[in-house]
Design a protein that fits this description.
The structure is a single chain. This protein has one domain. It contains no helices and five strands. It is mainly beta.
Length: 70
């Protein structure tokens, strides 16, 4: 599979089957991670993790806290 990304006015095509997005919340300063899968017709979220919780960042029902991550 390949993933086409448009950023800063340039298009880049990557030959990947999966990738992880990771960032730090600007207010709470907690880390977030999302694992994505590239299919022939779409992107699918496989798993999401939040390090801690805070305003507007509550883990969903059924979430499990494991080693500091929801």
């Amino acid at each position: 599979m390949s993933l086409c990304i448009l950023a800063a006015g340039k298009t880049v095509t990557l030959s990947v089957a999966a990738f992880t997005l990771s960032w730090t919340h600007s207010v709470e300063r907690t880390r977030w991670q999302e694992d994505w899968k590239v299919t022939s017709s779409s992107l699918q979220v496989v798993e999401a993790r939040i390090e801690g919780s805070g305003a507007g960042m509550e883990p969903p029902e059924g979430a499990v806290l494991k080693e500091g991550w929801w």
